[in-house]
C-alpha cells in the first residue's frame, strides 16, 4: 500500500529565510505523482507544486521548489524567502490509482509552518 | 474565474437530523471527490465520481451517501449525523489527463449538536 510520511508536526522559520518541509513516500508503482498543498486556517486546500516520477528536473513554482530524490523516495518542499502569509498547514500527497481514472490522493499527516516576523 | 464552490460554508445540525452539503464546479472536470477532514488530521477520501461512475471507499460508513445529477454538481448526504461526523468536508475536482491535480473548494465546516 502507498504511504506518505511527514515527520515534522510543526516548524518555525524566520521571515525572509528559507525552510524545508520533509516528505517521504512508499510505493511499488513505477509511475506516480507527488503533490504539495497548503491549507491556511480558513480550510481551503491550495495546490502548490507537482512532481511526476519520470520528471528529470526538480519542479519549481515561484518561491516553491521540490527537492525530489527518487532513490531515497523523498519529495521535500523548499520555500524560499518565507512570508508571514506562508503560515499554514502543508500536506504532501501522492496520487494513487490509474491516471486515466483520475486517481485519488493519499495525504501525509501534515506539517504546520509558523513564520515569525 | 473557474472554480469549485461549496455551500454552505458552515452548517450546524442536530444529532440524527439529515443534512446535505453541496458542491459545484465551473471547471468542467469529470472527476469529483468528497473528503472528510477532522481537526488536526489529513483529509480522508469518502468517495469519488468519475463521470457518473460512483466509487465508494471501503471504510466509508453507510451513513454517508452521494449524488451527482450532472457534471457540475455533487452532493454529500449524511443520513443520521453523529457527534463523530463533525468535521470539515472538502469537495475537489480533477481532469483525467496530465498530472490529475485536484482543485479543492473552500470546504463546509459541519457542527453536530
Structure, described:
The complex is a heterodimer of chains A (117) and B (113). With 117 residues, chain A is mostly beta strands. Chain A is 0% helix and 52% strand. The termini of chain A are far apart. Helices cover 0% and strands 51% of the residues of chain B. Chain B has strands at 4-7, 10-13, 19-25, 31-37, 44-50, 53-56, 64-67, 73-78, 87-94, 103-104, 108-112. In chain B, strand 7 and strand 8 (73-78) form a beta hairpin. Chain B is globular and about 40 Å long. Classes of the chains: A mainly beta (117), B mainly beta (113). The A-B interface holds A 33, 35, 37, 42-47, 50, 52, 91, 95, 99-105, 107-110 and B 30-31, 33, 41-43, 45, 48, 50, 88, 90, 92, 94-97, 99-107, 109.
Keywords, please?
heterodimer, A: 117 residues, six-stranded mixed beta sheet, four-stranded antiparallel beta sheet, globular, B: 113 residues, seven-stranded mixed beta sheet, 11 strands
Topology:
The complex is a heterodimer of chains A (117) and B (113).
Chain A: E1 3-5, E2 10-14, E3 19-21, E4 24-26, E5 33-39, E6 46-52, E7 60-61, E8 64-69, E9 74-79, E10 88-96, E11 104-107, E12 111-116
Parallel strand pairs in A: 2-12
Antiparallel strand pairs in A: 1-4, 3-9, 5-6, 5-10, 7-8, 8-9, 10-11, 10-12
Chain B: E1 4-7, E2 10-13, E3 19-25, E4 31-37, E5 44-50, E6 53-56, E7 64-67, E8 73-78, E9 87-94, E10 103-104, E11 108-112
Parallel strand pairs in B: 2-11
Antiparallel strand pairs in B: 1-3, 3-8, 4-5, 4-9, 5-6, 7-8, 9-10, 9-11
In brief, what are we looking at here?
The complex is a heterodimer of chains A (117) and B (113). Chain A is 0% helix and 52% strand. Chain A is mostly beta strands.
